[in-house]
Design goal:
With 77 residues, the chain is mostly beta strands. It has one helix and four strands; from the N terminus they run H-E-E-E-E. It has a domain of 43 residues. The chain starts with a helix and ends with a strand.
């Protein structure tokens, strides 16, 4: 850490280390199943739309700080 601070010309005490993560929350469609005779593959139309949103979060454990962002829901038709 001291080497990085020296290279950047900043005080090591002013460097914050943050840990971040992201997640997608929403609907993801399942495989459609249909009864059929063995050896045949009938068409099985199903809903292809999805709806989801992303959330992002980060924390700085040293200072006890945290931040989060939630995205607008997105849909695909």
């Amino acid at each position: 850490m001291a080497d990085i601070a020296k290279d950047k010309g900043v005080d090591p005490a002013n460097i914050e280390i943050w840990f971040a993560d992201e997640a997608r929350i929403g609907q993801k469609n399942k495989i459609t199943r249909r009864w059929a005779r063995r050896g045949t593959r009938p068409s099985a139309p199903h809903d292809q739309r999805t709806a989801s949103t992303y959330i992002f979060g980060a924390i700085c454990p040293k200072d006890g700080k945290g931040a989060a962002l939630g995205g607008e829901p997105s849909t695909t038709s």
